Amino acid sequence: MARRQHRYVGFVALGLAMFSPAAGNAQEPDDLAPYKMVRSLQFVQDSVVSGDHSAGEMQRFMLGTIDERLRTVDPSIFDDDRNVDAALIYAMSGGNPQTLEYLIAHDVNGYFDNRVTDVLRKYLSGKGLLVAKTLEETAREYRDKKIGPYLALIGGNVLIATKPTDALDLYDQARLAAPGTIVEEAALRRSVAICVDKGMLDKGMAYSQRYVRRFLHSPYASQFADLFVTLVVGHDHDVKPQDVIDILSFMDAPRQREVYLRIARAAAISGKPELARMAVGRVQSLGGTDNAFGPLADFYGGMAGLPTEDIDRAAKNVSGIDGNALSPRDQALQEAARSVAEQILRAPDPASLTQASDPNTDHQEITSEKAAAIAAQPGAPGALPEPVPGGVASTGQGQDTDPSFNAFVTTNRSKLDEIDGLLAQEGNEQ
Q1: Which residues have C-beta within 8 Å of that of residue 131, sequence separation ≥ 6?
Q2: How far apart are CA 127 and CA 122, in angstroms?
Q3: Helix, strand or coil for residue 395?
Q4: By the 8 A CB rule, do 170 and 157 touch?
Q5: φ, ψ for residue 264, nearest 5 deg
Q6: 57-99: per-residue pLDDT in tens?
Q7: How much is the CA Rg of the chain, to the nearest whole Å?
Q8: Residues 214, 2: Cα–Cα separation, whole Å
Q9: Where are the alpha helices (DSSP H) in 73-162?
Q10: pTM
Q11: CA distances from 309 to 271, 273, 276, 301 (A)
């Protein structure tokens, strides 16, 4: 790590010296070669995904300075193929697309491969699907060149929606050709996204392990965490808990707790109590004696336990946490879960269990004539249903039930519908 920091400081110092207007006349022309500038840009970008988020400002500075240099450089500098590759890599690394257009328009000597520039122009203008086949072929042709990993990466980006399997192959090509770089980080993260979308559990777990081992401190790691949680929760019956534990073991304890909390929450909303309990248990075990996330984990565990036999304990866990300590979304979940628990645990109204019939207080024998007369009365058990407007016959159900019971069903059905809506909304946000 110390050696990497030293190299980073050296590159930054070199970049500042190279790009400083005051020092411009003191530099040899070859010192400002585009390929050297882009090499420094690559190092800074790789430092960002390795965890040095402070390098972001330097990245923006260098992109702007390289842009200016490419527009003012003598065209003869592209006699060196390294500078041609540098201009293309700059365009594929977040550079100004108009600069590529400028270079192509002034390329009277044919330094740039028209096939490459054509697919890049289409991709950068949002029309990559028009040249998807050509881009895929070009990426494979240039796989051993400097621009190969970048072409493979953008080729995967184009094919991800229409040909995900081919996109995975291109992402594999990109990451294997550029290990430890921003290219590999993007390729791994997008490979996990494909596996989530297509239900490829085994591949998704393998990509996830590589990502956690290499890019845990990337600014895009939160996006990966969301994908990983979706992958695990979506395959709760097939994923092995030990595999999840092994992958997350590369993280420090705070990051592990955060991911396990996300898993617990998503599993609770999705009605997957076993996975939720596993995640809650991991949060508790990682917390030690001072676990600030313990109550929140209990809350998610309580939500997952509502449909189970241990509903009393689950309801206590749901209600036991202070709502002010929850996010607005979790406060809505708490209210929904508390309402569900109350409906399940509420004792039935004794009046609703009684028969709605007149008692035979005189203890008189009911003759066949009396029985026939009673049966002929509207609404009596066994009587024919009365005709109703519109020609739809009533089934007679509920006519003799307790009015208080009818009110209970109507009121609480609407409450449960509202709760279902809340949970569905929460599930869609995951």
Answers
A1: 118, 119, 122, 123
A2: 5
A3: coil
A4: no
A5: -60, -45
A6: 999 999 999 999 999 999 999 999 999 999 999 999 999 999 9
A7: 33
A8: 17
A9: 81-92, 97-105, 114-124, 132-141, 148-159
A10: 0.69
A11: 14, 12, 16, 14
